[in-house]
Input
Amino acid sequence: MTRVLLVEDDPDVAAACRAMLEHLGCFVLLANDGRQGLELIMSMHPDIVITDVMMPVMSGFEMIERARAMQYEGPIVVCSAIPEQDHRNHHARYDAFLQKPYRLKDLAMILAKF
Output
């Protein structure tokens, strides 16, 4: 079973995404902000991280940069309502991008890559 860390501060989005991931057969860990996400990345070593960008405490991009600096090499999927081209000034190393809102089949296609 794939262990997915979902980092999302909006409870409604988190609940919907968690339901989709569980429907796809994933075990879901949930963090409400980038700091919690980083702590779970380091302690639980998820197979895949799916993260929002704009969050309180620590942004998704900052979390990614810190996780990569701490040698996390698993796939990271960034989700944002802001188009990917508008995030080009960030240097966080992620593996895939999902534009919000996304559908179950979009999430399934991304997960199938890993």
Q: What stands out?
A: The CA atoms of residues 53 and 60 lie 4 Å apart. The mean pLDDT is 93. Helices lie at 11-23, 34-44, 60-69, 104-112. Residues 3-112 form a domain with the Rossmann fold fold (CATH 3.40.50.2300).
